[in-house]
Write a structure and sequence with these properties.
This protein has nine helices and 19 strands. By secondary structure, the protein is an alpha+beta fold. It has two domains: 3-179 and 294-376, Aminopeptidase; 181-292, Alpha-Beta Plaits (2-Layer Sandwich), CATH 3.30.70. Helix 1 crosses helix 3, helix 3 (103-119) crosses helix 9 and helix 7 packs across helix 9 (358-376). It is elongated, with a radius of gyration of 24 Å. The chain binds zinc ion.
Length: 377
């Protein structure tokens, strides 16, 4: 048993690095990678810690991307062994916050690099790691900033493996080759408030908005394509300034988020939303923010390498997917057009008693090492 993966994962889980704090996770990684000849740079931006480490020069550049932060542990009583008290159950299952998202995958990456470098001291190409401590919260001082700096230094990347938990039932059964975009709208509607018993003196913004929201919910933005499911919308909040049960409000705000494919441009979405709300005669303020643009790996070189490693080590055909939320892969997309997300099973991520199979941690490490072998030797 390659218990070094488990030991490193446990060392990382023990640190309560709730986003955007790192609290020393990257120092552990720094020591391990420095020992095997990596050059290391830290980019500390406000509360966020970022680390970029590379080894090698000429040839293709293979990068591994990840995050050392985790979501909060929540109610400690709901954990069998504690959120930040890594527990190895019967030597088979490792419990703790970050076990699968994604300190376990980081441990698999580092051990893979140690084994790879030991066996191939003078490999061709460049192997690098980029980790941030702010993926789970705002992300404003994380990968987005480092990618900008790397771009200025003309550090281009040929292939990027993101260690996010992409697997569903069996390790490697799903890999992500892209992600949908995300746009959030905040809309405020003004009306005239008054006593509910005298409707002729009122302009109730709730009444105005109900048919429009209905239109919004049922709107068919696109039909999806072979790579993406159809664009979808969820209303996330509605609130009014009603003073009491017999007073209609004069202001209503609501928020919704749209996850969009590469079929529709955010500009078009903004235009359509404006059309739905501004064609109606009322006082309306529309604000929006694009959080992520969709990306898609259209080249099959890296996808084929990753799929063949999964086939070799786990005897399954992997499924290519673009589902799920956004990931930091969207920023790496500015440095490379070949991104694949391959990580642990996502069944318990962000939940109480997050856990991972020890055999999966070890298998993932073999997969990462095999990918290094195929691309850099
Ligand atoms: Zn994650």
């Amino acid at each position: 048993m390659n218990s070094s993966v488990v030991n490193l994962a446990m060392q990382l889980i023990k640190i309560p690095s709730v986003s955007p704090l790192d609290l020393g996770c990257q120092k552990i990684i720094y020591k391990r990678l420095k020992n095997i000849g990596f050059k290391i740079y830290f980019f500390n931006i406000n509360n966020t810690k970022n680390i970029f480490a590379y080894r090698g020069s000429e040839g293709k550049h293979l990068n591994f991307l990840g995050h050392t932060d985790v979501v909060p542990g929540g109610d400690e009583k709901k954990w069998k062994y504690g959120a930040f008290n890594p527990f190895l159950f019967k030597n088979k299952i490792l419990f703790g916050r970050g076990a699968s998202d994604m300190k376990g995958a980081i441990a698999s990456m580092i051990i893979a690099a140690e084994n790879f470098v030991t066996k191939n001291n003078s490999y061709k190409g460049k192997l690098s790691f980029l980790f941030t401590s702010d993926e789970e919260s705002s992300g404003i001082d994380g990968i987005v900033k480092v990618v900008d700096l790397l771009k200025k230094k003309k550090q281009y990347i040929d292939y990027c493996i993101v260690g996010e938990p992409s697997s569903e039932k069996i390790l490697g059964d799903v890999i992500k080759i892209g992600r949908r975009g995300s746009i959030t709208f905040n809309i405020k509607i003004k009306g005239i408030s008054g006593h509910v018993a005298y409707p002729k003196y009122l302009k109730n913004p709730i009444h105005i908005i109900i048919p429009l929201l209905n239109k919004l919910i049922n709107y068919q933005w696109d039909n999806g394509n072979k790579d993406f499911i159809p664009t979808s919308l969820q209303i996330t909040n509605i609130f009014s300034n009603s003073l009491s049960g017999n007073v209609s409000p004069d202001e209503l705000s609501f928020q919704f988020n749209i996850r969009f494919s590469n079929i529709i441009q955010p500009k078009k979405i903004v235009l359509l939303v404006n059309k739905i709300f501004n064609n109606n005669l009322f006082d309306c303020e529309i604000n929006w923010k694009v959080f992520a643009l969709p990306f898609l790996n259209k080249k099959f070189e890296l996808i084929n390498v990753v799929s063949s490693s999964i086939k070799k080590f786990n005897s399954i055909d992997t499924k290519l997917s673009t589902s799920g939320g956004t990931s930091d892969g969207r920023f790496l997309n500015l440095l490379t057009d070949q991104i694949v997300e391959l990580g642990l099973i996502n069944k318990t991520i962000h939940k109480y008693n997050e856990c991972v199979k020890v055999s999966d941690l070890e298998l993932l490490s073999f997969l990462y090492e095999d990918i290094m072998n195929k691309l850099l030797v």
